[in-house]
Amino acid sequence: MALEDYKKKRRFGISPEPSGKSSGEKSQQPNFVYVIQKHRATQLHYDFRLEWNGTLLSWAVPKGPSLDPSVKRLAMQVEDHPVEYASFEGVIPEGEYGGGTVMVWDNGTWEPEVEDVDAALQKGDLKFTLHGKKLKGSWVLVRTHGYGRSSGKSWLLIKHRDQYASTGDITTEEPRSISSKRLLADIAREGGGDVEKAATGDPAPKSTKKKAVPSVKGGPKSPRRRKSAP
Ligand code: MN
Given Cys at both, which of 110, 116, 153, 164 links 34, Cβ 3.0 to 4.6 Å? Predict the structure, then answer.
């Protein structure tokens, strides 16, 4: 796909996003970059990106990843991004393409679980292992039927069963930037963005007045024991 679509949509004199000048150069590293950017644009979504053939293959995941293998998350393939986009965290000016706040939510490397990645992408069934800080283990992206404009671009992101599978909600349990530990609102504030809009992508602040005493209904035998706060 190369980066034409990426460049067409953006004005690099106005947006601080990388222009992708060094596109096309293949990474010399044996490991490929993996990143998820939490993006509070028109709608909150998580941009899931895998380095391949010198660019970042990209999918917008509205609900973000789930560690629960029974949960399939819609992932809309979007234009390839330059590899240097992986470290971009900041504010895209309102009115520009993707205007809003971007957070590096997770990053690391990935490796294919298939011999031929291009063939797997063509087929619409890519199995891979993530070596991220939040996401680890085996995953799959499966192309599904889309309609109209989403035809051919609609995929599902699914966790495979392994030691890293869980029913916990990783997006609410770990809402902060993996690179700066900031919330979206912090990034917006420091980048001159729309703090209120960004904050709608952060978890609601814990209510102090309703904290109260945990229910003792179940007593010590309660199976719904709560984990202690980290
Ligand atoms: Mn996005």
Answer: 110
Question: Which pLDDT belongs to residue 29?
Answer: 46
Nearest-CA neighbor of 159 among 33, 32, 72, 46?
72
Tokens 């904050």, residue located: 199
Q: Are 59 and 74 in contact, with CB atoms under 8 Å apart?
A: no
Average pLDDT estimate for 27-54 = 90
> Which residues touch 147 (CB under 8 Å, ≥6 apart)?
none
CA dist 100 and 40 (Å) reads 5
In this structure, which residues have their CB less than 5 angstroms from ion ligand 1? 39, 47
CB 49 within 8 A of CB 37: yes
pLDDT tens per residue, range 117-175: 999 999 999 999 999 999 999 999 999 987 777 778 999 999 999 999 999 999 999 99
Owner of token pair 């109260």: 212
All residues at 6 or more sequence positions from 42 whose CB lies less than 8 Å from its CB, including other chains:
100
Query: What CA–CA distance (Å, rounded) separates 55 from 81?
Result: 6
Tell me the domain boundaries of the chain: 3-199
With beta carbons less than 8 A apart as the criterion, state whether 73 and 61 touch: yes
